Fold this sequence. Notes:
Layout: H1 2-27, H2 30-34, H3 47-70, H4 76-97, H5 101-122
Helix pairs in contact: 1-3, 1-5, 3-4, 4-5
Amino acid sequence: MTMNLVLWIAAGLLAAVALLGGVTKTLVPRERLAAVHGGGWTGEVGARFVKTLGVLELLAAAGLVLPAALGVAPVLVPVTAICWMLLMAGAMITHGRRGEFALVLLNVVYFALAAFVAGGRFT
Length: 123
């Protein structure tokens, strides 16, 4: 029971992060994102790429909670968590190349939470 609650909290936190990132990347112009701390990378890639990442993050937000909450294909929760881990690996590489090591550390935390959710929901 306690483990299930902790898994829900972890998935909910990740979903909130994904929702915020997804909404930001899909609705805020790339030029404005590039001017914000940690968003400089968006100035180096195309607008479509940024929007695509935003849509993927919105899908991740839904996939981390809705399947389990609705009881429909709950296996999608750990699958989504693994996809989130891949996204965070890319974020770590991107921020690492830019010397943004505080953001790399934040992405490591998100990666670890996703690994916890994936492992906990697959069992």
